[in-house]
UniProtKB/TrEMBL annotation:
Protein name per its UniProtKB record: dTDP-glucose 4,6-dehydratase
InterPro entries (UniProt xref): dTDP_Gluc_deHydtase, NAD(P)-bd_dom, NAD(P)-bd_dom_sf
Required cofactor(s): NAD(+)
E.C. number(s) listed in UniProt: 4.2.1.46
Transmembrane region(s): none
Gene Ontology MF terms: dTDP-glucose 4,6-dehydratase activity
Entry keyword annotation includes NAD: yes
Originating gene: rfbB
NCBIfam families registered for this protein in UniProt: dTDP_gluc_dehyt
Source species of the chain: Microbacterium invictum
Presence of keyword NAD: yes
Length: 333
């Protein structure tokens, strides 16, 4: 059956990867609703067939616009957010507007139109783990967010849960670990270091570089979301992860090696305030209940392909690079 999907934030990193995945693997039609903030880029949706994908430029907090779009679709996948921790430390306000009020606006429309709603969230809502802790996050780990960004994502998750229980909205939630792959903004860790090397600048590692992130390819995130949208139980939360824990130092050294540089050719810079130490996802529920499996099981190969993508797509990332580095320079990063 051909569905009509509304994908919020579909011009951002993970949202655009999802739109590409849907076009490749289903017959669905996708309407993207995106405000095209600094993080949104129309070019990430270029070359997709115009009879399968259309872009509406607008704000998820615009209730009239959202209401009209919900009336036209069968289901909604909600990626739109302010997504960068460093920005949230600098200016939290847009995070409240989009992540909290924007999600509230969408939930009210889902309620009015009785539409299937999938909310994209993050493992950061659970706070962090010690480096030597054998535990990983599960669906029952208590919420304990650290940053303005993660606290607004936690707030949005709680709104979704309340709208399911109080108003019967047909929603599911997924909390995913760190994504890598094509179309990621150069403000984020992996693209920043790849594009630094491409520009002849040394990569920048916050603090000691011992912080651990649990990496998953964005295409695996997309297949998991599609699985939950189609088979997930209403009201449930599913954690998405691909057993990809690595320290930041290890990732920087790998990028440098894959790009033909000395593995130690990076700089340590001022640490991020409140920097979460380690994230780790136990995705047993998603795998055992819904049969999902990641396809990208070789991080080095996925990273090498991502490096190639940035090498070949300077037109896509070049215009953002100067502004991003100017922002980081004000913080000595
Ligand atoms: P991104 O910053 O690359 O993209 C966000 C998109 O949302 C952009 O296209 C932007 O223009 C759009 N947007 C922002 N505010 C909007 C508004 N008010 N109305 C409409 N559109 C708006 O972010 P991303 O990394 O692709 O993350 C997407 C989602 O996935 C977020 O909800 C994030 O919390 C979640 N997530 C991200 C990761 C990760 O590793 N990047 C991991 C887990 C979960
Ligand atoms: O865990 C999921 C989250 O992953 C998502 O919810 C967020 O939207 C996404 O941005 C990401 O958050 P992080 O803060 O983990 O990602 P970031 O790319 O900003 O940083 C990854 C790690 O690398 C983190 O420990 C900080 C560090 N870092 C980052 C930058 C930009 C550096 O050491 N140097 C850098 O230049």
């Amino acid at each position: 059956m051909t569905r009509k999907l509304l994908v919020t934030g579909g011009a951002g990193f993970i949202g655009s990867n999802f739109v590409h995945h849907v076009v490749a693997h289903t017959d669905d039609h996708v309407t993207v609703l995106d405000k095209l903030t600094y993080a949104g880029n129309k070019a990430s949706l270029a070359h997709l067939p115009s009879d399968r994908v259309n872009l509406v430029e607008g704000d998820i907090a615009d209730a009239d616009l959202v209401d009209g779009l919900f009336a036209q679709v069968d289901a909604v996948v909600h990626y739109a957010a302010e997504s960068h921790n460093d920005n949230s430390l600098h200016d939290p306000r847009p995070f409240l507007d989009t992540n909290i009020i924007g999600t509230y606006t969408l939930l009210e429309a889902a309620r009015r139109h009785d539409r299937r709603f999938h909310h994209i969230s993050t493992d950061e809502v659970y706070g962090d783990l010690e480096l030597d802790d054998p535990a990983r996050f599960t669906e029952s780990t208590p919420y304990n967010p650290s940053s303005p960004y993660s606290s607004t994502k936690a707030g949005s998750d709680l709104l979704v849960r309340a709208w399911v229980r109080s108003f019967g909205v047909q929603a599911t939630i997924s909390n995913c670990s760190n994504n890598y792959g094509p179309f990621q903004h150069v403000e984020k860790f992996i693209p920043r270091q790849i594009t630094n090397v491409l520009r002849g600048t040394r990569p920048k590692l916050y603090g000691k570089g011992e912080n651990v992130r649990d990496w998953i390819h964005a295409d695996d995130h997309s297949s998991a979301v599609l699985t939950i949208l189609e088979q997930g139980r209403i009201g449930e939360t599913y954690l998405i992860g691909a057993d990809g824990e690595r320290s930041n130092q290890n990732v920087v050294e790998l990028i440098l090696t894959l790009m033909g540089q000395d593995a130690d050719a990076y700089d340590h810079v001022t640490d991020r305030a409140g920097h979460d130490l380690r994230y780790a996802i136990d995705s047993t529920k998603l795998r055992s209940e819904l049969g999902w499996r990641p396809q990208y099981d070789n991080f080095e190969a996925g990273l090498a392909a991502t490096i190639d993508w940035y090498r070949q797509n300077e037109d896509w990332w070049g215009p953002s690079k100067v502004g991003v580095e100017a922002f980081y320079a004000t913080k000595r990063q």
